[in-house]
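Is this the right way to post structure tokens for a design question? Let me know if I should format differently. Anyway, here goes:
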């Protein structure tokens, strides 16, 4: 298969995901069916409607690309593909159901395990984050950059307050966290995008995340000058058999290094 044209692929993602956002807005704040999947995570009619639209639109435009989405039955044939769409039709379904504007639609094109084009769209706040490899990142067409924050103390952190306050951080070799301005967002991808545009300095999640949560936002954050990795510093490779990543740390280079110093030794449960 020839190397994909990342610029053309990004244009395809942008037009398709904007249309998908209109679908999500039709459901947002209204009455729709909602239920729990087998493992307990929520899903709604909106998730499926957006997924169906993106599947039809994107796969018709790039029939040689494989497909991986949270709301589509997995096809193991994707494991043999060099290039794959990785999609989360609604990242932050809990926020969506609570009528909170903290959800996003995420779509990436991954080639040989790494994203080359990606978009993260909040259709309520109308923030449209986009990037293709080697050409920087943007929000609503304007270039974005991570902050130049160097120190953890006083930084603007998107993470789980309960996790950061856990008593285990007080026991060696751990270190207690200094004072930070801590917030969270239901959408992991949105957290990463808000670090990419400098609204926050860092984001951290020490729990397993799926490829569709991360792939598009990984590219946006790195193209904005930041670094995204697992908590042990390892690069994230996408479209593996489990489509799962152990954790995620994202920040500008100097702050990222300080965060990795604090968390890289942590042993997480195997998934």
């Amino acid at each position: 298969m020839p190397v994909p044209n990342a610029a053309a692929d990004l244009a395809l993602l942008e037009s398709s995901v904007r249309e998908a956002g209109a679908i999500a807005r039709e459901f947002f704040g209204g009455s729709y069916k909602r239920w729990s999947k087998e493992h307990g995570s929520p899903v709604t009619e909106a998730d499926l409607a957006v997924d169906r639209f993106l599947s039809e639109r994107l796969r018709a435009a790039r029939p040689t690309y494989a497909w991986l989405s949270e709301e589509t039955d997995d096809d193991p044939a994707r494991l043999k593909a060099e290039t794959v769409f990785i999609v989360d039709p609604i990242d932050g379904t809990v926020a969506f159901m609570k009528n909170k504007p903290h959800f996003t639609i995420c779509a990436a094109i991954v080639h040989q395990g790494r994203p080359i084009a990606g978009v993260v769209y909040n259709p309520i706040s109308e923030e449209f984050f986009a990037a293709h490899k080697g050409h920087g990142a943007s929000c609503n067409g304007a270039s974005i950059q991570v902050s130049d924050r160097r120190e953890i103390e006083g930084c603007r952190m998107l993470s789980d307050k309960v996790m950061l306050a856990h008593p285990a951080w007080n026991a060696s070799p751990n270190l207690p966290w200094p004072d930070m301005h801590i917030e969270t967002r239901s959408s992991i991808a949105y957290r990463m995008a808000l670090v990419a545009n400098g609204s926050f300095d860092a984001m951290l999640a020490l729990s397993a995340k799926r490829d569709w949560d991360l792939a598009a936002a990984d590219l946006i954050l790195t193209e904005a000058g930041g670094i995204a990795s697992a908590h042990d510093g390892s690069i994230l490779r996408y479209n593996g058999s489990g489509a799962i990543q152990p954790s995620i740390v994202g920040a500008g280079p100097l702050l990222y290094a300080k965060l990795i110093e604090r968390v890289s030794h942590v042993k997480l449960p195997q998934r």
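Format looks fine. Someone answered above. Worth noting: The chain is about 30% helix and 25% strand. Residues 187 and 223 are 20 Å apart (CA to CA).
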